[in-house]
Structure to design on (327 residues):
């Protein structure tokens, strides 16, 4: 029997193909069950081949979950934490994680998505799937959720160290005038009557929490480092008819070159693991664009299962648990 004090920690991520033979299944799932065109499928396969047909996200997320729970259990708050995985587009799916918690007798759960910034199209859709899985089979576990930690002091401190590390590794001749791009995954947007934009699936009133959250992250890191040249950019936009958040990282790099910056550092603040959007979209595409424009290119190391990042996650969850009711 599971101890009544046991708390299940459902760590959620986007999901990944399991290997080259699983790419079509994965692509179809992220398209809501609509198979991709042969051309688009081949393009995705080519991208995976370009990064060596590596698919690290599931293993990385599992290591993040285990490392997080190990730290929570060392915290001495009397609870016993257990790790569970829930992926949005690949096994184990989010309902699988919820069912595993229920089978283990877990009555209380906390959900955290491996994405620091909230949006209705990203984090909230994970939460909706958890709630649906609970409703489909009963009333337990009872969940609370970490919705964002984009401005948590521990996360800002971690990113600050990563940006400092990457800048210090740049050649001294270009370091002072290097520009830093803080990036996140682009999302489709809607334009309001007054010309302002919001994420398409968010219900933000005065501004977009997702865009403003990325800007807030950038501002806080820049303040700690005293950065003079920094801005936000968007990457990995999908293939839809909708407009997406811009400017894209590629356009920002071109503009930086026109403005005379000799180097660019990309801090992919919206991602916390190496996967295709980092290993291809940044390490191959963005690097090529920068180098063709005559810029030195670098990016910050991704958090992955780095012990320092796991410490951040543990502090985020502890702070969350301290703020929510125990029942």
């Amino acid at each position: 029997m599971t101890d009544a004090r046991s708390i299940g920690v459902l760590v959620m991520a986007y999901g990944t193909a399991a290997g080259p033979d699983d790419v079509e299944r994965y692509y179809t799932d992220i398209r809501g069950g609509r198979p991709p065109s042969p051309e688009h499928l081949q393009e995705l396969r080519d991208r995976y081949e370009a990064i060596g047909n590596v698919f690290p996200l599931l293993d990385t997320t599992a290591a993040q979950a285990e490392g997080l729970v190990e730290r929570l259990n060392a915290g001495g708050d009397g609870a016993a934490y257990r790790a569970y995985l829930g992926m949005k587009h690949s096994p184990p799916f989010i309902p699988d994680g919820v069912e595993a918690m229920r089978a283990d007798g877990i009555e209380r759960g906390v959900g955290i998505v491996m994405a620091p910034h909230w949006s209705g199209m990203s984090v909230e859709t994970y939460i909706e799937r958890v709630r649906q899985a609970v409703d489909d089979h009963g009333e337990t576990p009872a969940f609370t959720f970490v919705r964002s930690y984009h401005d948590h002091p521990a996360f800002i401190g971690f990113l600050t160290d990563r940006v400092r590390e990457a800048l210090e590794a740049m050649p001294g001749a270009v370091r002072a005038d290097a520009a830093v791009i803080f990036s996140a995954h682009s999302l489709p947007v809607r334009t309001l009557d007054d010309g302002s934009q919001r994420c398409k699936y968010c219900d933000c009133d005065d501004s977009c929490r997702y865009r403003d959250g990325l800007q807030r992250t950038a501002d806080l890191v820049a303040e700690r480092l005293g950065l003079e040249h920094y801005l936000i950019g968007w990457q990995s936009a999908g293939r839809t008819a909708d407009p997406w958040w811009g400017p894209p990282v590629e356009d920002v790099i071109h503009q930086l070159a026109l403005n005379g910056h000799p180097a660019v550092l990309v801090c992919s603040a919206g991602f916390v693991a190496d996967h295709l959007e980092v290993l291809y979209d940044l390490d191959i595409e963005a690097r090529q664009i920068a180098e063709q424009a005559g810029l030195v290119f670098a990016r910050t190391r991704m958090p992955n299962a780095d012990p320092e990042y796991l410490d951040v996650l543990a502090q985020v969850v502890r702070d969350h648990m301290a703020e929510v009711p125990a029942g």
About this structure: Strands lie at 6-13, 80-87, 108-113, 142-146, 179-185, 189-191, 197-199, 230-235, 263-267, 296-299. Residues 57-73 form the longest helix (17 residues). Residues 153-299 form a domain with the Rossmann fold fold (CATH 3.40.50.1400).
